Amino acid sequence: MARVVLDDLMKSYGNFHAVNHVSLTVEDGEFVALVGPSGCGKTTTLNLVAGLLPITSGDITIGDQVVNDLDPKDRDIAMVFQNYALYPQKSVYKNLAFPLQMRKLPRDEIDRKVKEAARVLDMTHLLERKPRELSGGQQQRVALGRALVRDPAVFLMDEPLSNLDAKLRVQMRSELKRFHHDLQATIIYVTHDQLEAVTMADKMAVMNGGNLQQYDSPAQVFAHPANMFVASFIGSPAMSLIPLEASTVDGNIVLTGAEGWSLPLSSFNSRKIQNAKTRKVVLGARHSTIKLHKTAVSDAVPAKAYTVEPTGDVTFVQAFLSGAIVNISVPPNVDVAPDEQIWLEFDQERMHLFDGETEMAIKAD
Ligand SMILES: Nc1ncnc2c1ncn2[C@@H]1O[C@H](COP(=O)(O)OP(=O)(O)OP(=O)(O)O)[C@@H](O)[C@H]1O
User: Fold this and answer.
1) Domains and CATH numbers, the chain
2) What is the pTM of this model?
3) I need a surface site. Which of 227, 246, 312, 340 has the fewest CB within 10 A?
4) What's the ipTM?
5) Do 98 and 117 contact (CB within 8 A), yes or no?
6) Residue 12 has what pLDDT?
7) Locate the ABC transporter domain: which residues (predicted)?
8) Are 249 and 262 in contact (CB under 8 A)?
9) Atom of ligand 1 nearest to the CA of 190
């Protein structure tokens, strides 16, 4: 396996930058997810690494070789696509053997590699079947096997699970994670599904508009989103982002909502605001860090319930606050009705504060 380095990578179409100054390192054996909304540039980035598209500028290094000008076949990569494109007339065995035959490997070596891949992916019993005799998940496993037999330096995967139904996706997600664990493979994986990225990847590269927004472990990205885009994209339901105004009252920092209420900040959060250049502050809070009260209590701010969605284990409530929609989760026995007056208490230790102008997280120091 190999490490992959993207250094100031650009892909432009005229004045439009599909990939804009992206730099990141995928360490040897790491599983990295490129994640972001449709059109953010993740597939383009993957295709640049694969050599399916020419780069505009920058460098791509695989192992210790700069591969900018190498053909895909010379990059020692294997791709797995959403559309697995198996040969319908060939058995699973022949589908797996084909790329090796093309490389003119000896027959006994092909046989050994195919059987080893089938063993790793638990499909030895499927080797004589044709693709149409397989389930979607089994077909996807064959596609993975076809990449595996090539023993590449890097696996590049573009939404490989998106053709599967929801249940199978969850199952294949675990299998892919196991595959990575067993092989210690270097994997770059494109997905628009933040949950896939969070659950499988060692690191996630969150992209938006061709720009790399944050590159870190899912836990770090979740706990310390670099900006409002990342904060709202990672996590479900989305983090609530509430625009407020910071001011100083009797020496203490308070945040004031559009309705006129004020929320005094803890000393830690106050220090953050003192460091910020702006008075326009956006409070970010995940649903599980907001307490819903049915009566006024100190430190809770008044809001109005909008929708109430019981899911069994928890009930999700949406409420209006300072012109924003706030997502809150409450135990199923809490009875809330749409339009009811409620009070929200934010956990000061787990709240996020963003600069309302730059949209960047306000740092502690
Ligand atoms: N040949 C092209 N000419 C001009 N613009 C292009 C071309 N190919 C891609 N783009 C644009 O580049 C941007 C990034 O596309 P890309 O396919 O990488 O997005 P993506 O994040 O993978 O999205 P999706 O999840 O929808 O596949 C998009 O805005 C797309 O319209």
Assistant:
1) 4-225 (3.40.50.300), 240-355 (2.40.50.140)
2) 0.91
3) 312
4) 0.96
5) no
6) 98
7) 4-234
8) yes
9) 22
